[in-house]
Write a structure and sequence with these properties.
The protein has 150 residues and is mainly alpha-helical. 61% of the residues lie in helices and 7% in strands. It has 6 helices and 2 strands, in the order ααααββαα. Strand 1 (89-93) and strand 2 (101-105) form a beta hairpin. It starts with 14 loop residues before the first helix and ends with a helix.
Length: 150
Amino acid sequence: MPDKSFSVKNADDSSGFLLWQVTAIWQRGIKKALDVHNLTHSQFVLLASLLWLSNQKGDITQIDLSSHSKIDPMTTSTVLRTLQTKGLIARKEHSADTRAKVIQLTDAGISITKLALKTVETFDKDFFSVIKNKRNDFNEIVVQLIKENK
């Protein structure tokens, strides 16, 4: 007698399982690409987010980075400590909020972030090339999922 535990007949009919698989494959590729820069994926995401936000607004806090990257605040804090130890970011007192620290890229942080961005953008271009002219549709669907599940 067939097992009725699953609501789908084939594993390829499970959106969550498909997302898990493609994410795992993509993350393995990103890890390999970032190894040459001695960065983890989380480190890269926070560095890239810091560079992005630096172009958008003045003082950037840990909460800003956590919110932008969707990395939980505790993990953000841990990764930022590592990045500070590596000399890629600096923290200073916030001008208005004494509880908050302003986070800035150092010159070394800017340099490595820009190099790693080129690496990741090249990897992404190659990885997602299989969906050709459907990339905008894919991005719209993913953005919708993010917005609906914050």
